[in-house]
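Progress against Task 2.4 (sequence-to-structure conversion) is shown through the following example record, which the project officer requested during the mid-term review.
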Amino acid sequence: MPTVLFLGASISQLAAIRQARATGWRVVAIDGDASAIGLAAADVGETIDFTDVERVIPFADSQRVDAVVAKSTDRAVPAAATVADRLGLPGIGIETGCLMTNKAAMRARLAHHGVPQPCFAIIADSAESDGALESVGLPAVLKPVDSGGQRGVYRIENRAQLAQLFERALAHSRAREAILERYIHGSELNGIVVARRGTPTLITLSDRLRPPGAGFGVGWAHLYPSQLS
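C-alpha cells generated for the chain above:
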C-alpha cells in the first residue's frame, strides 16, 4: 500500500486525509498541534512541526513515504518541497517551493521574465514606506511577503493608513518584510493547475467566494475589522 505524508492535519486537511485513505493510500500526518483533528483520522499521526524539516525528514524516511503533500497551507509548501527533494520523491523542487510562497521572490521572478503584473515595492522598514508609495501609487494593497490566508492584508487609501498598518502586516511575516502592490479592480478567480512531467492541466477555474457584504473595492482591512482594534 502506498504511503502519503500530510504536512498539517487541521480541519483544512481533514477531507483530503479521509479521501486519500478511501482511495487506498496509507496516510501519515504530522502537525505541531497535538490536538489537530486530522492526526486521529490518519493511519499514523505524529506531533511534529512541519517547518522543522530536520525532524520531518527522518520521520518520513522511517515511515517509507511515497509522496508528501502540502494541502491548504502555504507555509508547508517549502517544507514539502525540501522533504521530497531530500528523499528523492516527486516534487516541485526547493527553489520553486520558495518562489511560490514568498511574494517578493515571486514578483521579482515574474518581472525578470516580463510577465505583466501590478506595480510593487518591497518594504522592510517604515522609512521605506514613502518611497514605496510614490512608486506604486494609490489605492494599494499591503501584505506580508510570506504569510497566507489573508492574514495581515490591507487595502491602503492614503499615506496615514500605510504608516498605521505597516507594523501589523509585518507582524505576520517571518522574513520581516512586506510588499506594497497597486490595487487592481476586477473579478478574483481561483485556478487549480496540476503539472505532471512538465505538462500543465487546468483542473478548475472558479470565482473567489467573498464574505457576505464584501463587494469589489472592499479591502481586507474592512473585511477583518478585528485586525484594526
